[in-house]
Design goal:
Order of helices and strands: EEEEEHEEHHEHHHEEEHHHHHEHHHHEEH
CATH architecture of the largest domain: 2-Layer Sandwich
Number of helices: 16
Largest sheet: 8 strands, mixed
Low-confidence stretches: none
Number of strands: 14
Structural class: alpha/beta
Helix content: 40-55%
Shape: globular
Oligomer: single chain
Length: 397
Amino acid sequence: MKILVLNSGSSSIKCQYFIDKKSVASALVERIGEEESYSEVKYKEQTLSTTDPVSDHQQALEILFSLLKESNTISSIGELDAVGHRVVHGGAHFSEPTLITQEVVETIRSLIPLAPLHNPANLKGIEVISKIAPNLSQVAVFDTAFHQSMPDHAALYPLPYELYERSGIRRYGFHGTSHSYVAKEAAEMMSEDLNTLNLITLHLGNGASACAIKSGKSIDTSMGLTPLEGLMMGTRSGDIDPAIIPFLSHNHNMDIDAIDKMLNKESGLKGICGTNDMREVVTQAEEDDTLSALALEMYSYRIKKYIGAYSAVLGRVDAIVFTGGIGEHAVKVREMVCEGLEESIGLKLDAVKNKITLTKNHPIHKLKSKIRLFVIPTNEELEIVLQTEKTIKDMTL
């Protein structure tokens, strides 16, 4: 099948074009609405680009399709079988990929209060495709869907229950597409049925989340109502005492917008040592920069705490998976996270394997480790393709 994967942001659009599950081209438009917009398509180790102004998302998509045609990647939008859209928030409404209808569009729109920065942009991509190619099948793949299998005791906050009933305040989780993909890859590496496995998956990038997967289903995850909860991240604080918020308001004269900005954009690694680039943090820590060493220790410690908690929840852990930019490349982080886990849960990291840089799935545990340990590069675009194909095929049965 010929499927375009679309990730529509507020001022950018990114896409990848797949033929029979193989990526043949990628394209993007950046700085939509600005005087100097940038558009490019990459194919067969070549790049076509333009710096023409792009006024809105419709023009951005028209430029992308024009570049794809110019590169002889596609002849027309009509040859596509479907478009798979990344949609950040599906709330409690969507637990699987969904064929987009007007009713689905309105439901995504109703969830904007839960994802005010992302869902409006995701909707723009859907609506523009509908205008350009009204008969083309579109599928929404939700970041939150994989976590809808969480039981209520894990998903709900200990707040007045009416807040959940009235406003849907509960834990939804994110990075679900990535956690789902690497879980399936781990099962294949182990030659096991995913439905028989208990896994802990760690998506570590500028945004980071952990997921406890029991018998192939997410039963808990570190992110919550928003992507702010959970692990320490590049610029996000992760878990904090909620009383810090009124403390800052009363004692530092910070309004709610300033606090929100601080927690999301000025905290985490950046807040402790001034940079959210893990490569710089590790280098500076090795050069005896005290705050960088502290940030690295805090980051790894909090991941280790979640591994401990999820090990207790799962009862039996068959494998732990590192993925995401940091999870796949930061040897030092993996080393620090796994330190001491041999005594507690029987996990034995192979230091030599851990230092080998590969761009494919590979194990990094010792043969006698009770728990297997994998580095698996995530591929959210391919996972969206797989889910889009399945949705289209199920529709025709």
